[in-house]
């Protein structure tokens, strides 16, 4: 950790504390660094405000409560303790809902695979309370998602937010969207069903048998939960982080904790598979970031690949600059251009850019309701809407 701070000397004290504490295990050296940092002139409200923006506030609180409980002001500790208790209760409730949905799908012969959420907290963090999640994500076929929609509506779930503007018409979900989002009647349980991982931000074809490929079972509160293989899940985590252009520390933290939990994961096989998907640079960028941020040791073969890749090193540096200084987060155009540069194939990078620029979302569907025969016009409405929003933000 001191090596990282030396490489990024302009990081404020609050960000240094977050970086030190946002991990499940801290070495003796880093514990001493964290305690020393905590004794400096720290604005603890800013620490937990920023940690909340990065969705790592509960992990940061858990570590600081062990290392610097005698330093953090008492009134802040009381508030954090209550927030952590509420967070644990919410995670347990969502875990229970996950199992209920799996049982519901099993009874109706629908195959679904949980991604992230409680499942990732269990296998990567080894503790349901240390990862923040506010919804349940499932990978399912498009046909399965529409069947689950009917089952959830029957259980008093409703299509969440702007989804309601599509008039509950399956046509829109089949042609415009890549997921369905639901909210329970009491607004405490959110469920997302996706059938095309990370579309439209990153383009690659999902094989028809992807949902059945190398599935394993993990124990979650004593219940067997289906999961993708470690290698597949690792790819999904990396793609998800790139989709959001590394704007939150929690996604980098997920990758780091996953790597710690599976030290023998076959990185060579993963990089070979990533090369076929044309996302090898994305994987290497994430690996370099956790190497810098957490002093995570990578195999020499991987470090050699990174050393010879200027694109990866340039973007890793740029990502950490904006990740640790949220005052200048990248805008959407910058994210899309960077995504073009990070893809292994320039052609696919350009396709990613165009898909993200033009693919209609629920926002466009809610602004203008067109008949089905005019649906292609949404591909024009989307970039026009983005341009208008950009101009408006510029002058406001």
Task: Describe the overall structure.
The protein is α+β, with helices and mostly antiparallel strands and 396 residues long. The chain has one domain. 59% of the residues lie in helices and 8% in strands. The protein contains 19 helices and seven strands. The chain has helices spanning 2-7, 13-21, 28-38, 44-53, 57-67, 74-107, 117-125, 142-154, 170-175, 230-243, 249-261, 267-277, 280-294, 300-307, 310-323, 332-342, 346-358, 362-367, 378-395; strands at residues 112-115, 136-140, 158-159, 179-183, 190-194, 216-220, 223-227. The strands form two sheets. A five-stranded mixed β-sheet has the order 1-2-5-4-3, with helices on one face. Helix 12 (267-277) packs across helix 13 (280-294). The radius of gyration is 22 Å and the shape is globular. The two termini are 40 Å apart. The mean pLDDT is 84.
3D shape: globular
Q: Give the termini distance in whole angstroms.
A: 40 Å
What would you call the quaternary organization?
single chain
* Radius of gyration over C-alpha positions, nearest whole angstrom: 22 Å
Total beta strand runs: 7
User: How many helical elements?
Assistant: 19
Helix content: 55-70%
Low-confidence parts lasting 5 or more residues at pLDDT below 50?
none
What is the N-to-C succession of helices and strands?
A: HHHHHHEHEHEHEEEEHHHHHHHHHH
> In order across it, which strands form the biggest sheet?
1-2-5-4-3
Characteristics:
396 residues, alpha+beta, 5-stranded mixed beta sheet
Write the SSE topology.
Blueprint: H1 2-7, H2 13-21, H3 28-38, H4 44-53, H5 57-67, H6 74-107, E1 112-115, H7 117-125, E2 136-140, H8 142-154, E3 158-159, H9 170-175, E4 179-183, E5 190-194, E6 216-220, E7 223-227, H10 230-243, H11 249-261, H12 267-277, H13 280-294, H14 300-307, H15 310-323, H16 332-342, H17 346-358, H18 362-367, H19 378-395
Parallel strand pairs: 2-5
Antiparallel strand pairs: 1-2, 3-4, 4-5, 6-7
Helix pairs in contact: 2-3, 2-4, 2-5, 4-5, 7-11, 10-11, 10-12, 11-13, 12-13, 13-15, 16-17
